[in-house]
Amino acid sequence: MPGIGTAVVTVPAIIILFATGQVWQAGLLLIWASLVVGLVDNFVGPYLIGRGNNMHPFIILISVLGGISAFGPIGFIVGPVIVTLFFILLEIYNQYIIKEQRITELDEVV
């Protein structure tokens, strides 16, 4: 959930740190969550994942989560690459194999 996904985790953590008297750590976590995590989650991540493809965002989300689940942190990249390659193979199959079969069938009829 862009915009609130990381806030669900970091806001309670910051509140707990402030409540337990760890003001310095809470301030650092607030800066880290706002600048680094927030920028990556809301701007850099969608830009890197979404550019140049026509996949539905849900498929991208599932491929990222599946990639992370299967391959660990590098799965953030590997998962969408594997799904993209699968879609390319389906497109190649559709354009060349099936169309070639249709042309062959039409030649047999004529």
Keywords for this entry:
83% helix; mainly alpha; 110 residues
Structure description:
- The longest helix is centred in the C-terminal third of the chain and has 35 residues, at 75-109.
- The chain is mostly helical and 110 residues long.
- It has 2 domains: 1-51; 52-110.
- It is built from 4 helices and no strands.
- The model has no long low-confidence stretch (mean pLDDT 80).
* Integer-rounded radius of gyration: 23 Å
Strand content bin: under 5%
SS-based structural class? mainly alpha
What's the structural domain tally?
Answer: 2
- What characterizes the major β-sheet? none
Report the total helices: 4
DSSP helix fraction: over 70%
Sketch the topology as an H/E string, one letter per element: HHHH
Which of globular, elongated, flat, extended, rod-shaped describes the shape? rod-shaped
* Straight-line distance between termini: 56 Å
Low-confidence stretches: none
Mean pLDDT: 80
Number of strands: 0
List the helices and strands and how they pair.
Layout: H1 7-19, H2 23-50, H3 57-71, H4 75-109
Short account of what is shown:
This protein has 110 residues and is mostly helical. The chain has four helices and no strands.
